[in-house]
């Protein structure tokens, strides 16, 4: 073997051995001219986290594979980003049903889903609590009962969700606005224990910052929930999100005022109702 070929094989060995690509549930979205992108000003995202790190605001860890692969990584990752945002903005951590979003968005149990379809479903179909529609593996992809779907629409009365794509050169800027959903290759490691890219993206995760060595840190729905990628890792199809609590509609306030001197108490009770529904 020539010295040139030998050096090439040595470099490949250091990067890890390519394995058969597994299915985790990511399907690339079709990018359209009408899609929102960071920098267009259409979504109106603002810098809310100057540190560009979300490590201290992670939600409770939940596995997407509990004995059988669900291929729901896109729903798990999208809701993790939403829960991180909620904890950061409102100082409380909801636990939304991954199963609900996975099924409502039409995830294929054999191949998965794309982030655009999942995010659009979230915008128009809402969320429900994990306790209202829990992870039950044997029933995971059953048709969602109408009363549960109604709870998702009820959630949208109190919240507004948005998303937009992020160009690769704007990912660090995006991290100041939101955790970044992104596609990666799962999973191979180099001799340093860093996760490396050996093929096309097949998994959806949440970028939560960069470490002191400038390596991407991601939050995953598999064991070792926080993973360190090698420096320079190319993240693909990145998205950021907005989460806003809606004010009580003016019509409701008018109705409360018609009730007399206790209208402020009625508004307070309404806020308490919303609080207990969410948490």
Structure description:
The protein has 279 residues and is of the alpha+beta class. 32% of the residues lie in helices and 15% in strands. It has 8 helices and 8 strands; from the N terminus they run H-H-H-H-H-E-H-E-E-E-E-E-E-E-H-H. It has helices at residues 3-15, 73-90, 98-104, 115-125, 146-155, 171-174, 250-258, 263-278, and strands spanning 159-165, 180-184, 188-189, 195-196, 203-210, 216-219, 226-228, 236-245. The chain has a 6-stranded antiparallel beta sheet with strand order 1-8-2-5-6-7. A two-stranded antiparallel sheet has the order 3-4. Helix 7 packs across helix 8. The longest helix is centred in the N-terminal third of the chain and has 18 residues, at 73-90. It is globular, with a radius of gyration of 21 Å. It starts with a helix and ends with a helix.
State the main characteristics.
279 residues, 32% helix, 8 strands, 15% strand, alpha+beta, disordered N terminus, two-stranded antiparallel ribbon
Can you give the helix content as a percent range?
25-40%
Give the CA-based shape. Answer: globular
Fraction in beta strands = 5-15%
Distance from N terminus to C terminus (CA atoms, Å) equals: 65 Å
Total strands: the figure is 8
- Gyration radius, to the nearest Å? 21 Å
Mean pLDDT: 88
* Low-pLDDT residue spans: 1-21
The major pleated sheet works out as: 6 strands, antiparallel
Q: Order of strands side by side in the largest beta sheet?
A: 1-8-2-5-6-7
Question: What is the ordering of alpha helices and beta strands?
Answer: HHHHHEHEEEEEEEHH
Tally the helices: 8
List the quaternary state of the chains.
single chain
Helix and strand content put the structural class at alpha+beta
